[in-house]
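Please study the protein below:
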Amino acid sequence: MAPPPFRLRFTKEAAANLAALDADPSRAKRLKAVRKALGLLEQNPRHPGLNTHKYSSLTGAKGAEVFEAYAENRAPAAFRIFWHYGPEKGRITIVAITPHP
Protein backbone atom coordinates (compact mmCIF):
# COMPACT_ATOMS: atom_id res chain seq x y z
CA MET A 1 0.00 0.00 0.00
CA ALA A 2 1.34 3.43 -0.95
CA PRO A 3 1.93 6.03 1.75
CA PRO A 4 -0.70 8.76 2.06
CA PRO A 5 -0.14 11.85 -0.10
CA PHE A 6 -0.01 14.08 3.00
CA ARG A 7 1.60 13.70 6.41
CA LEU A 8 -0.11 15.31 9.37
CA ARG A 9 1.66 17.63 11.79
CA PHE A 10 -0.12 18.73 14.99
CA THR A 11 0.30 22.05 16.78
CA LYS A 12 0.56 21.83 20.57
CA GLU A 13 -3.06 22.97 20.81
CA ALA A 14 -4.29 20.32 18.37
CA ALA A 15 -2.28 17.59 20.10
CA ALA A 16 -3.79 18.65 23.45
CA ASN A 17 -7.29 18.70 21.90
CA LEU A 18 -6.84 15.15 20.60
CA ALA A 19 -5.34 13.93 23.90
CA ALA A 20 -8.27 15.37 25.87
CA LEU A 21 -10.73 13.69 23.53
CA ASP A 22 -8.84 10.41 23.84
CA ALA A 23 -8.86 10.64 27.65
CA ASP A 24 -12.65 11.00 27.88
CA PRO A 25 -14.33 7.58 27.58
CA SER A 26 -17.74 9.21 27.14
CA ARG A 27 -16.52 10.66 23.85
CA ALA A 28 -15.33 7.41 22.26
CA LYS A 29 -17.74 7.83 19.35
CA ARG A 30 -16.48 11.39 18.75
CA LEU A 31 -12.86 10.20 18.91
CA LYS A 32 -13.57 7.54 16.28
CA ALA A 33 -15.11 10.17 13.96
CA VAL A 34 -12.15 12.54 14.46
CA ARG A 35 -9.61 9.79 13.75
CA LYS A 36 -11.51 8.82 10.60
CA ALA A 37 -11.55 12.45 9.44
CA LEU A 38 -7.81 12.76 10.09
CA GLY A 39 -7.25 9.67 7.96
CA LEU A 40 -9.33 11.18 5.16
CA LEU A 41 -7.31 14.40 5.41
CA GLU A 42 -4.11 12.42 4.88
CA GLN A 43 -5.54 10.81 1.76
CA ASN A 44 -7.55 13.65 0.25
CA PRO A 45 -8.22 16.98 2.00
CA ARG A 46 -11.03 17.61 -0.50
CA HIS A 47 -12.89 14.39 0.28
CA PRO A 48 -16.63 15.18 0.07
CA GLY A 49 -17.30 13.69 3.51
CA LEU A 50 -15.06 16.29 5.13
CA ASN A 51 -17.01 19.23 3.72
CA THR A 52 -13.74 21.19 3.73
CA HIS A 53 -13.98 24.94 3.28
CA LYS A 54 -11.82 27.98 3.89
CA TYR A 55 -12.14 29.45 7.36
CA SER A 56 -11.59 33.18 7.09
CA SER A 57 -11.39 33.99 10.83
CA LEU A 58 -7.98 32.34 11.25
CA THR A 59 -4.66 32.40 9.46
CA GLY A 60 -1.91 29.85 9.80
CA ALA A 61 1.84 30.24 10.04
CA LYS A 62 3.20 32.84 7.65
CA GLY A 63 -0.35 33.85 6.68
CA ALA A 64 -1.36 30.40 5.37
CA GLU A 65 -5.05 29.93 4.58
CA VAL A 66 -6.81 27.88 7.26
CA PHE A 67 -9.50 25.37 6.36
CA GLU A 68 -12.25 23.75 8.40
CA ALA A 69 -13.11 20.08 7.94
CA TYR A 70 -16.05 18.29 9.51
CA ALA A 71 -15.34 15.22 11.62
CA GLU A 72 -19.11 14.79 11.96
CA ASN A 73 -22.16 16.20 10.23
CA ARG A 74 -25.63 16.81 11.60
CA ALA A 75 -24.72 15.91 15.17
CA PRO A 76 -24.99 18.06 18.28
CA ALA A 77 -21.53 19.29 19.36
CA ALA A 78 -20.00 17.84 16.19
CA PHE A 79 -16.23 18.16 16.02
CA ARG A 80 -14.39 20.32 13.51
CA ILE A 81 -10.75 20.13 12.46
CA PHE A 82 -8.92 23.35 11.57
CA TRP A 83 -5.86 22.92 9.38
CA HIS A 84 -3.57 24.43 6.75
CA TYR A 85 -1.12 23.18 4.16
CA GLY A 86 2.58 23.17 5.03
CA PRO A 87 5.02 24.20 6.25
CA GLU A 88 6.69 21.67 3.94
CA LYS A 89 5.30 20.24 0.73
CA GLY A 90 3.18 17.17 1.41
CA ARG A 91 2.33 18.29 4.96
CA ILE A 92 -0.89 19.32 6.59
CA THR A 93 -0.72 21.12 9.91
CA ILE A 94 -3.63 20.45 12.24
CA VAL A 95 -4.24 23.70 14.12
CA ALA A 96 -7.13 22.68 16.41
CA ILE A 97 -9.79 20.01 16.93
CA THR A 98 -12.87 21.51 18.55
CA PRO A 99 -16.55 20.79 19.15
CA HIS A 100 -18.86 22.94 17.09
CA PRO A 101 -21.25 24.94 19.29
Remarks:
- The chain has a mean pLDDT of 90.
- Residues 28-43 form the longest helix (16 residues).
